[in-house]
Amino acid sequence: MKKTHVIQGTLWVFIYLVLVSAPLVVLLIGRVPEGREFWRELSVALGFAGLAMMALQFVLTARFKWLKAPYGADIVYHFHRQISFVALLLILAHPLLLFVFSPQTLALLNLFSAPWRARAGVTAVILLLALIGASVWRKPLKIEYTNWRIWHGILATLVIALAITHVVLARHYLNTPWKQALWVTYGVFWVGLLIYVRILKPILLLRRPYEVESVTPERGNAWSLTVRPVGHAGMKFMPGQFAWITVLSSPFAEAEHPFSFSSSASQLAPLTFTIKELGDFTRQIKTLQPGQKVYVDGPFGHFSIDRHTHAEQFVFIAGGVGITPTMSMLRTMADRGDRRPVTLLYANKDWDSVIFREELDALKDRLNLNLVHVLEKPSTDWNGETGFVTRAVLGRHLPKASQPNSVEIFICGPQPMINAVENALTQLGVPFGDFHSERFDLV
Ligand SMILES: Cc1cc2nc3c(=O)[nH]c(=O)nc-3n(C[C@H](O)[C@H](O)[C@H](O)COP(=O)(O)OP(=O)(O)OC[C@H]3O[C@@H](n4cnc5c(N)ncnc54)[C@H](O)[C@@H]3O)c2cc1C
């Protein structure tokens, strides 16, 4: 990891902690409301911290490149998921402490008779529970991803708006200019963020459109979508990164999907994405016609050889369509004339479904490439590796590292494959920092 990323990463964590704890500090400044016992103060303080965390959730998913650069998009999304449970606990602690130490406050749960401040607070908590429940159980509840995403945004906005209404109507903690200034700043920042994400960002994308150049069938039920920029130079990216693609829709419509670049990073344009048919959106790729508008929001991600320039050699472990970021890295290395040794362990169901089979073979002439295919269901005359990428397979093909960081390993494929390979590498004694995974399943 680059030194600047370590510094940036530490700085963001520090700023996050300051922003989350600021309401507590400001709470202590000035006059504390009279006749309010410790438990009531504590409950309010926890509620404030939880609310600040919830408001900051919008920053985490706003796709700011400067925020994601030190960690990578998947880590930021993972943090977003996990920290929502902490925020929920803090927010629930607020009413629960009140109910325990002032049982008469239980009456506030009756939405018919309760004052508006309690109605706003109780409704915010109910919606927050629905928001988190739908996210945790989206797949078992069979909630379609795009619908879930739209409702996730609506519910999150309502939760914050209602919680702020609760704070304003409760008034106890807006009794000094300091406290008012803090909450006005938070409110303005939050509204500004919404305007940026929902209005400014789509406008910026509209001004840098792409159009379909070609759609080419690949092996393994996949299609390579090539797009060229219209009226601008294209996009600079690191090989292995990804972008959010919108097709057949406007950038305002919340209908984008993430795909890794499969083309070489040596060229700003055209850009190619190789997409496997999986669901409603990916099934439409083959129907796209040359000239149709495409919007590309990126680049994102930290899964790239360019973040490990010191490496003496690379190992890529790919499964199925997980080859796409690797393909971008291999094509880029070939274009750059990079002759560092590369091992590619590529797992597929059978020989016919090996995406880029012919090109990978041809790349051996341009790269110092050791290509190992692993087939789950090989034909009877196959004499290569069979089954899955196990510890034994890795043991046979992994190069020996002269020191930590000399061999950098990149893994991308189905979730169970990534988990199994990470475990096997750990058992083989590969240092944690020497392998990097890209998960196609962000949510
Ligand atoms: C960083 C990253 C890189 C990816 N690169 C590639 C690639 O190069 N080639 C490729 O074929 N696939 C890639 N994917 C996976 C691809 O985004 C999904 O397969 C695609 O979005 C599925 O959409 P669908 O409507 O066809 O399928 P659905 O059946 O609707 O969705 C299947 C699953 O894909 C995920 N998904 C769906 N829509 C989205 C969305 N808008 N945002 C995030 N996740 C979503 C959800 O987990 C969902 O359950 C990548 C995913 C990520 C996160």
Defining key terms:
443 residues, 3 domains, 6-stranded antiparallel β-sheet, 45% helix, single chain, alpha/beta, 11 helices, Four Helix Bundle (Hemerythrin (Met), subunit A), binds flavin-adenine dinucleotide, Rossmann fold, elongated, Elongation Factor Tu (Ef-tu), domain 3, 12 strands
Description:
This protein is an alpha/beta fold and 443 residues long. The protein has 3 domains: 3-205, Four Helix Bundle (Hemerythrin (Met), subunit A) (Up-down Bundle); 210-300, Beta Barrel (Elongation Factor Tu (Ef-tu), domain 3); 309-438, Nucleotide-binding domain of ferredoxin-NADP reductase (FNR) module (Rossmann fold). Helix content is 45%, strand content 17%. The strands form 2 sheets. Strands 4-3-6-1-2-5 form a 6-stranded antiparallel beta sheet. Strands 10-9-8-7-11-12 form a 6-stranded parallel beta sheet, with helices on both faces. Helix 1 (3-28) runs antiparallel to helix 2 (38-60) and helix 2 packs antiparallel against helix 4 (73-101). The longest helix is centred in the middle third of the chain and has 30 residues, at 177-206. The chain is elongated. It starts with a helix and ends in a 5-residue tail after the last strand. The model has no long low-confidence stretch (mean pLDDT 91). It binds flavin-adenine dinucleotide. Flavin-adenine dinucleotide is lined by residues 145, 242, 256-260, 273-276, 278-282, 321, 324, 440-443.
